[in-house]
Amino acid sequence: MRVGVLTGGGDCPGLNAVIRGAVRKGTQEYGYDFVGFRDGWRGPLEGNTVPLDITAVRGILPRGGTILGSSRTNPFTEEDGVRRIKDNLAKYEVEALIAIGGEDTLGVATRLSGEHDVPCVGVPKTIDNDLSATDYTFGFDTAVGVATEAIDRLHTTAESHMRVLVVEVMGRHAGWIALHSGLAGGANVILIPEQRFDIGEVCGWIESRFKVRYAPIVVVAEGAMPKDGQMVLKDDSTDSFGHVRLSGVGEWLAKEIESRTGKEARTTVLGHTQRGGTPSAFDRWLATRFGLHAIDAVHDGDFGKMVALRGTDIVRVPIAEATAKLKTVDPALYAEAGVFFG
Amino acid sequence: MRVGVLTGGGDCPGLNAVIRGAVRKGTQEYGYDFVGFRDGWRGPLEGNTVPLDITAVRGILPRGGTILGSSRTNPFTEEDGVRRIKDNLAKYEVEALIAIGGEDTLGVATRLSGEHDVPCVGVPKTIDNDLSATDYTFGFDTAVGVATEAIDRLHTTAESHMRVLVVEVMGRHAGWIALHSGLAGGANVILIPEQRFDIGEVCGWIESRFKVRYAPIVVVAEGAMPKDGQMVLKDDSTDSFGHVRLSGVGEWLAKEIESRTGKEARTTVLGHTQRGGTPSAFDRWLATRFGLHAIDAVHDGDFGKMVALRGTDIVRVPIAEATAKLKTVDPALYAEAGVFFG
Amino acid sequence: MRVGVLTGGGDCPGLNAVIRGAVRKGTQEYGYDFVGFRDGWRGPLEGNTVPLDITAVRGILPRGGTILGSSRTNPFTEEDGVRRIKDNLAKYEVEALIAIGGEDTLGVATRLSGEHDVPCVGVPKTIDNDLSATDYTFGFDTAVGVATEAIDRLHTTAESHMRVLVVEVMGRHAGWIALHSGLAGGANVILIPEQRFDIGEVCGWIESRFKVRYAPIVVVAEGAMPKDGQMVLKDDSTDSFGHVRLSGVGEWLAKEIESRTGKEARTTVLGHTQRGGTPSAFDRWLATRFGLHAIDAVHDGDFGKMVALRGTDIVRVPIAEATAKLKTVDPALYAEAGVFFG
Amino acid sequence: MRVGVLTGGGDCPGLNAVIRGAVRKGTQEYGYDFVGFRDGWRGPLEGNTVPLDITAVRGILPRGGTILGSSRTNPFTEEDGVRRIKDNLAKYEVEALIAIGGEDTLGVATRLSGEHDVPCVGVPKTIDNDLSATDYTFGFDTAVGVATEAIDRLHTTAESHMRVLVVEVMGRHAGWIALHSGLAGGANVILIPEQRFDIGEVCGWIESRFKVRYAPIVVVAEGAMPKDGQMVLKDDSTDSFGHVRLSGVGEWLAKEIESRTGKEARTTVLGHTQRGGTPSAFDRWLATRFGLHAIDAVHDGDFGKMVALRGTDIVRVPIAEATAKLKTVDPALYAEAGVFFG
């Protein structure tokens, strides 16, 4: 039997480890062979493939990114998308698909499985860790590690100049990276998308920190927002492409803090460094196990399912259920971190 | 109310993060004050204390080791131990104790709580991750990270010289560090204490690896043993202090592999580097949360309990139950890794 | 004899190592005692001091930043600045000063030594490595290391999405960080302040890179500029505070590359993470030796001099000479890197 | 013109960067093509080659080890060695050789160039940094970095248990790694092969360190030796293979320190982790430049020469001269570090 593998959406450390795990076990234990589809759903849509065997996956475990390439292509928005995919799967004699990706990629897998008899197994991937039904997604631990190391470095600069340093981390809809790296890095303020912040309260925490002669670090998720009416975006407050990423809430915060507290404030936007490079040991372990269990699901003919982490176990859940709602930071969990604010 | 804190057993990255979490929350939210007992149970036994307040815990989050010092002192083997501890707690007006440690340290806490009305809350600490009732203990992720980085480095040396490299990692009774770092580092053989290995089979895996022109990495837990009769320790096979650590199973393996396969083999014993230094982001997050929840348990008067990680939640369990049995690697989990052997 | 120590200008990994080296040797071998002046020249100006002895310098070797704090205060622009400094040195019975800083800080030291009989020894500090008379300044190697690790991480993201990634590194007037991290990170384009670049040529290199199915990384120093007339800053091309740092040449490049080549381009601005955190081993070694040799110069009464690295030797040079001209990247050295462009 | 490249001796981070630099510049600027000889001098001796072009060197810059493999084969000890090499060079139409290696590999290159008209250019490689005529060799900075990070980690364990930690680093004949990592890691004792140490003095330093309540770290080069008559190796003081590496001076020191001071002492032998893995930014920069300048030397027909670092310049020196004498640690430089002992 031949199994197709594709990776969709933004890249994430651990994708190659998933691919390797599935190919190693599928080949050695089940006697399957594999075909790689290039650039997410565009691959099966356009019949764009890469060879995928044990030789192809040698040495990729520690490598970030994905050897299959990625894209955000959605076959359901392409003319005749489903039929073209089914034709290509037939052409390449692919009898099962492993789709590794986030909400969009897995959403396509759900519909192809459920409505169009395309046998798919899903592997959840979101660096933001905001997917339901799994305790963690791979890539998240690496991103938190990169952010924490950056915060460690920024502390010394903040102390030396008695300056506020704002660190903008990833997280448009969920504050997991901000919460974990903020706690691990000893941040004095952590701001997440799940809860509108009050800029006055933030400045209060900052001033109380200076009172004990320590310089504050503010960790803010890119999707965090102040209370209504507090954020007045000047016409020129987006940069030349309207990138929010590069002139967003982090920049706005530093400006507001400077004008309200009179303290110097600087922003660092970590950006893509959070999602590239070699995966952490935890992410390699998790991604490898996801790969092993995904091919087991294929072997069991258990399609329409996604692998997930529960405690230390890998389980299977219906993809549909997993992608139904975003996993956001629970208010009680966020409140726990509050003891470190100010 | 005054709370005493102590750390016992071998040091472990994250101990300071636990202390900081408990002191920050206890002081700010519950209005407690704290006293640190030096060097584990020896502290309350001998009335040896250190000041412990918010100033004392500033900046310790990223620091490995423990600001309180540690020891393996067991008051139950000391003359009049329990009475002396109770006297010192009274003398310092300590009404509750947070004991951070492994089986031995927590075992003492259980008996003091259960049999002698000393109100104790436990925080589990074992770098080997072999304590029941918690998914993970802090320090483990850091140790796995250090071991994985070493394995990454050793791969290139192995390949350049087509040589076998044996990496001996911590784990006397449980193979968690070997299993996780071996999987994350792409080892070709992983040997754990839970299952006696067959040296012939190990050499078979090594030879099959060389057949595809790749040089093998063998990760072995210090407590792993070959099948009965296979390991013949020469009189001179322990070093000048009889340290197993420095002339143990890793050395024996390299020697056997050389003589059985004719391939050059070298051993690296990672030793103490696995347990020192700054904690990983995951361990800082886990240890900080353990500290916050330990002081909550004190606040609730919920003594004789230990904090534990279940999935992403911190829960409380009876210390006695948690220390009752060693958490070892499940055979099925170990079998999962087998696909990568050879 | 009592020696004063101060650190001026932007913080830099290794400042604490210099302080420790001078205090350890001065105390143990010469029997000096020390006083720390807080926040650069503001310290002696305002008589703001911190205790500085062997206890004060314990454990600071691996810590970034400076335990003395820093500022850009210039006594020559302050009313009565020189007299106030001389009065405070007399008040604290300070007979010699070690000034650790860049052009401005050392410029003050030169004038105080030469024109006002204040015995100063200089220690050069610039993370940009743009100070004449020394092969390297401490902090530079750390900054290059941080930038190189970021470039390593960005490669995988670039490849996975076949996207251009622009990395803006420090270097307003000299391209040393860009050149070294670009070479070490395998960048496909390196742009430095010393040579105006042609945006058309840059896009040509990028397109040739895509032709071989590889995604390009562009490393650009914050001070790099295109040829006259090529850079047209839109009204909206500065962010809400007109920070060049966050909407500077890196942002402009990504925008131009997108519009000229039709390829997706993203910018990462590394910012303050390059100058904070623990120093690299090389920087700890260099900074420690600078500290040891600075106190030797004080002992020899060799004032008005600065310590410098020549090959593997630490030498002394007149401060004036060292700060006379900026050390920029030699065109021949930049040309060497050209073989990797495109 | 076709150029052959080989790497000999122990592996070292940066070998691949040298190869890449030479191949990129040779191909693009001089129109050469290349052939890789496998496993050092064994390659040309046995006519064992690997393809070496721009595609072959893509992505190898950050990879440790050597894509060409290595060996310690010496053609002058092989029957008919020189003739066989000349025949194979003729067979593969190789008109010049770039030999990357240490004393032995370069010694062969000297004789082949000088006595047998084989046009060779040398690139110095020794992780121990003990080669004359160059300020640094690539790989050394990486090794020092790995050792320093290990020392950082061991400090916290030492402090937590008030225990002596002995770290044995590489360096059979020269103490460069011990000196640099010891200084950078804040060691309290540094022992090098160049100077016999007095075990009594070492124990004195250790005791004085404990007096101020700090736990000592001893960094010892594997080749360091105590004064005559002090080191009495018990029969059981070598391990089961008589590996000095695993039961050498580090083990002996810990034992002596325990028996003489009564303090607990532990040894960590860093071993192969020092020479594997990704090169530091400094080593990538140095190795890349060595590759670029080596191919320039070939282009200039400047054979029998070796590239070398002097300050920040790459120069050429006669190989013979460079390998004539070992570069050891100057007593004055070692004395500099003495201020930190005890």
Automatic annotation (TrEMBL), chains A, B, C, D:
Coiled-coil regions listed in the entry: none
Keywords per UniProt: Cytoplasm, Glycolysis, Kinase, Magnesium, Metal-binding, Transferase
Activity regulation: Non-allosteric.
Cofactor(s) needed by this chain: Mg(2+)
Predominant cellular place of this UniProt entry's protein: cytoplasm
HAMAP family: Phosphofructokinase_III
Similarity annotation: Belongs to the phosphofructokinase type A (PFKA) family. Mixed-substrate PFK group III subfamily.
Protein name: Pyrophosphate--fructose 6-phosphate 1-phosphotransferase
Organism: Streptomyces natalensis ATCC 27448
